[in-house]
Here is the input.
Amino acid sequence: MLSLFVPALLLAGSALAQVTYQNHSQTIVRVDNGTYGPEVEEVHYYYDQWPIGIAVASDGRIFATYTRGDDEYTLGVIVNKTAEKPYPSAGLNLPPSQLNSTWNGIPFGSGNSTGLISVQAVYITSKTSTRPETLWVLDTGRPTVHNAKGEPSMPYAQPGGPKLVAINLSNDTVYRTYTFPADVHYPDSYLNDLRFDFKSNLSGTSGEGIAYLVDSSNEGRPGFIMVDLGTGESWRRLDQDRSVLRGANDVPSYQGIPFYLRQKGMSVGWQLEGLDGIQLSPDGKRMYYSPLSTNYLWSVPTANLRANASDDSLVEVFAHANVSNHGQRGGNGNGFEGDSNGLIYQLMPEHNAIYYFDPSDGLTKPFVRDPRIIWPDGASVGTDGYIYMNINQLPHQPDWNDGVDGRVHPGVVLRAKLPNGGKKVTSLYED
Ligand SMILES: *[C@@H]1O[C@H](CO)[C@@H](O)[C@H](O)[C@H]1NC(C)=O
Ligand SMILES: *[C@@H]1O[C@H](CO)[C@@H](O)[C@H](O)[C@H]1NC(C)=O
Ligand SMILES: *[C@@H]1O[C@H](CO)[C@@H](O)[C@H](O)[C@H]1NC(C)=O
Ligand SMILES: *[C@@H]1O[C@H](CO)[C@@H](O)[C@H](O)[C@H]1NC(C)=O
Ligand SMILES: *[C@@H]1O[C@H](CO)[C@@H](O)[C@H](O)[C@H]1NC(C)=O
Ligand SMILES: *[C@@H]1O[C@H](CO)[C@@H](O)[C@H](O)[C@H]1NC(C)=O
Ligand SMILES: *[C@@H]1O[C@H](CO)[C@@H](O)[C@H](O)[C@H]1NC(C)=O
Ligand SMILES: *[C@@H]1O[C@H](CO)[C@@H](O)[C@H](O)[C@H]1NC(C)=O
Ligand SMILES: *[C@@H]1O[C@H](CO)[C@@H](O)[C@H](O)[C@H]1NC(C)=O
Ligand SMILES: *[C@@H]1O[C@H](CO)[C@@H](O)[C@H](O)[C@H]1NC(C)=O
Here is the structure.
């Protein structure tokens, strides 16, 4: 209303108003062309399984994850512009018939601690003096199965199935697997993302580094899970803290359309995912994070995530009290990435864009926008200084459309050059 009234008063009788009216046959109305930022290049096309996570290795290999379901495999490597294949082998990807089990009539995910069940995310750490370049694989252990009515549903995890797997990229062999006790990974946990710091002097660790994992639990107990990479011990922090909880009844818009959760056979609802994107500062001292379905960015000192409850019963209270609210960013945020300049990139599915948080002035800024960015899911900064992202058209998937799959092949890997010579963060992997 304001914009109708104010110009009318200001323009009455003015020269500007006369010019506009006398030459209206030439008027060109300004449009939103849908783009800004560096050139967006198409790197790979997915013609078969729809991807989620992505990681780019120093030799250019691109790894993709596919949560499943019915898919033949859950971890793949791109072989050419239009095809991928199972990684590290077809045999390590459990076949669809072995993904789930039933106990007392209750469906569970597989408890196989070797075979890959449903991989959500991957992350690559660079070579160090003690460790090869490593592909870290986060298996949720929770496939999507079909319930008695034939509708998709996600069974609970059983211990063993959810795991963190380290694969040596020099010879494509698993060299370490971490599983979780039942009081760290709950049956309704969902492992969503992962970051690493290998420094030997980190408080609260045995000196062989740490993994910070996301539990995004749609069922409502999201939080951080930490793994001491030396001892394999794991623990939780910021469990159900207000900063990790989903936004209440959040209705995002994708391509201008408001989206509710519309699962076949269920009442219309809302996206329930909590804590989602995370990124470490290049010095490893601060963790930035956000739930999927809020507009807020948060951070916490990593020392508060590492602190051991056996040493101090107040560690959870201290962690909560040390959380910083960086305010709103202008939309829901999905996966995060970061670069050597300390910028915190945030995938913005409502805006077909990537924004970044700039810690030097505390503001969120635009980086790249393109109409092809229809749900940017995982992203990965390569050693070549490009950010690669998986585009998977998630708002068109059956779960948000009454069971109708409106996705149109291909999915795609897009990439854009980072600003100011930004590179992959390697400072955390030097010890
Ligand atoms: C109308 O606008 C066009 C483009 O700005 C200009 O070239 C033209 O001379 C204008 N015509 C009149 C009658 O002002
Ligand atoms: C699209 O608009 C943006 C400003 O929003 C501008 O920076 C960009 O150059 C325009 N792109 C094209 C192709 O015109
Ligand atoms: C890509 O690889 C697939 C599977 O190996 C093969 O069928 C296809 O012909 C290849 N395409 C090109 C363009 O090389
Ligand atoms: C796995 O789930 C399917 C439904 O998707 C069900 O038919 C099958 O019986 C389950 N397998 C086991 C071993 O429970
Ligand atoms: C677990 O998966 C591995 C790898 O696929 C397979 O070799 C092994 O037989 C499975 N174990 C069980 C108990 O099914
Ligand atoms: C990784 O593979 C390389 C090449 O085979 C090997 O030299 C190295 O010992 C392996 N490291 C681990 C931890 O498996
Ligand atoms: C990879 O390297 C590790 C450590 O040297 C070794 O145990 C393993 O057998 C190697 N795998 C292959 C396929 O060479
Ligand atoms: C740990 O080591 C890093 C260098 O690897 C150094 O920058 C940092 O200050 C050290 N931290 C502590 C608490 O000693
Ligand atoms: C916490 O500290 C206790 C006592 O020092 C130690 O036994 C335990 O291993 C530590 N736990 C973790 C997860 O590091
Ligand atoms: C922040 O955490 C530290 C321990 O890392 C603690 O000493 C401090 O009191 C906490 N800050 C607040 C405001 O509680």
About this structure: Helices lie at 2-11, 15-22, 302-306, 315-321. The pocket of 2-acetamido-2-deoxy-beta-D-glucopyranose (ligand 8) is lined by residues 199, 201, 431 (CB under 6 Å). The domain at 41-421 is CATH 2.120.10.30 (Neuraminidase). The chain has a mean pLDDT of 93.
